Amino acid sequence: MKIAKAIPFEGKPVFHMPSVYGGCIGKEILCRIPVTGKRPIRISATGLAEGLKLENGIISGVVEEDCQFPVEIRAENELGKTMWQVTFKIHEDTMLLTPLMGFTSWNAFGSAVSQEKMEETAKEMLQLGIADYGYQYINIDSGWQKEYGGEFDAIMPNDKFPDMRGFCEKMHSMGLKCGIYSTPMLTAWGCPEELPSIPGCTRGKPSILFTCNNGGIGEERMEENNVRQWEKWGFDYLKYDWAPCEPINAEHMKVALLKADREIAFCVTVNADICYREYWKRKCSSWRCNKDSMDNWDTVKEYLADQGFCKIEYWKEAVSPGHFYDLDMLEIGAMSWNQGRSHLTENEELFAYTLRAFFLSPIQLSCVLSELTEFEYNLITNDEIIRINQDSLADFPEPYSKNEPEGVLTYQRMLENGDTAFAIFNTSDEEKTQILDLKGFKAVRNLWTKTDLRPEKEFKCTVEPHCAVVLRASGSR
């Protein structure tokens, strides 16, 4: 499919920020304002609570009371002015009210991840304008660890990460947040080739209460030691990885995170079983219960079409603002572990991205950003698709079951301004036409092509094989 072209450094300012922002009482806020347009752009704000300041397009500071307040942000360049209003919600344990957007290292670098590679990736996010569309997190996956030690008797980094605190400070100076990876297992997955093993957040004799995966889970609890170390370094997010996931080990870590003096969002992976849904939806920013992302079509379509444990629709009742079902890292672009570029076609890459965006999943780039094709760049910076993912209503999609051809799956969801969004996924090997009833809507727009269409009672939408179409219908029926 031919998609719209991104122009991050042209035109009048355009904001790409959700209408809500979550922060924790008494903990540092770091909010980079994502805005595209011709540089230079001057940004100002009114309504900031006591304790907050705006410098260089970044809102930072600490709010000491439970509150929420509207902030009016203005951006101006030589071509015009734009205003955006965002409601800051400052409460206990309130983070990521819309899905995380950023970069995670595993698919891109595997266990060869290094501080140098991550810092270069962060620079590219800014230089390419990717951060200006809302991508804010730079997350280190497994491969950073070595052994226990240091001030807090915590996991220390290997030689590829000579200055963790310096890394976090550099990310924060750019307005970016940074994440780290660990596990409750005695031995973590993702060990670098040069090391015999890497530790997790428990030690000692394996407990008989838990799985024996990777040596099991130790009786000696080291969660608080490690959180104190991550807090001192300056991390903002934790990916906590083991299988099967259960609330006992998750809660040990969650309690330690809540004691920290900084916000640290919490993602549980890889097998967060639905039988513990009540825990995940209350305590986790996001969670996974699906296969690892792979650059083959069968795996991509299985996220949507499979009737097994990972079917997206089963998680409808668990998803809400601040709590999202994670479909794992994107399978697009140049990646180290497959010795080259993604084996997905352009249509399949679009299908994979649409899945994350429409189903409120975190959107995690995980490829070499300097090697993005023009199509891939336009794919990940389509602001109208990103707005669907970042819509603050967080309404989970419902099946739209009228007149579906074989191999087509169609969903709809409400948006915060009253519009209705439709996503049509073609899992078949042939072009298909889906008929939607759009009578009564005043306008309809194809978001991938950014074209306005005419709404009709029998609106015919043709979808290419292994591809998806996203429509936004506005006005009352």
Topology of this protein?
Elements: E1 14-15, E2 20-24, E3 29-32, E4 35-36, E5 42-46, E6 52-55, E7 58-61, E8 67-77, E9 80-91, E10 101-104, H1 106-109, H2 115-127, E11 137-139, E12 145-149, E13 154-157, H3 164-173, E14 177-182, E15 202-206, E16 218-221, H4 223-233, E17 237-245, H5 247-259, E18 265-272, H6 277-283, E19 286-287, H7 297-305, E20 324-325, E21 334-335, E22 340-341, H8 346-358, E23 363-365, H9 374-380, H10 383-389, E24 398-399, E25 408-414, E26 420-426, E27 432-436, E28 443-446, E29 451-453, E30 459-463, E31 467-474
Parallel strand pairs: 2-9, 10-11, 10-23, 11-14, 14-17, 17-18, 18-19, 19-20
Antiparallel strand pairs: 1-4, 3-7, 5-8, 6-7, 8-9, 12-13, 15-16, 21-22, 24-25, 25-26, 26-31, 27-30, 28-29, 28-31
Helix pairs in contact: 4-5, 7-8, 8-9, 8-10
Short description:
With 477 residues, the chain is of the alpha/beta class.
Strand order in space, largest sheet: 20-19-18-17-14-11-10-23
The helix tally amounts to 10
Low-confidence stretches: none
> What does the average pLDDT come to?
95
The CATH topology of the largest domain is given as TIM Barrel
Shape: globular
Q: By helix and strand content, what is the structural category?
A: alpha/beta
Q: What percentage of residues falls in helices of 4 or more residues?
A: 10-25%
**For the record, what CATH class of the largest domain applies?**
Alpha Beta
- Count of discrete structural domains: 3
CATH superfamily of the largest domain: Aldolase class I
Which second-level CATH architecture of the largest domain applies? Alpha-Beta Barrel
Main sheet makeup: 8 strands, parallel
Percent of residues in beta strands? 25-35%
Number of strands: 31
Q: What is the subunit arrangement here? A: single chain
CA radius of gyration is 22 Å
Report how far the terminal alpha carbons are from each other.
29 Å
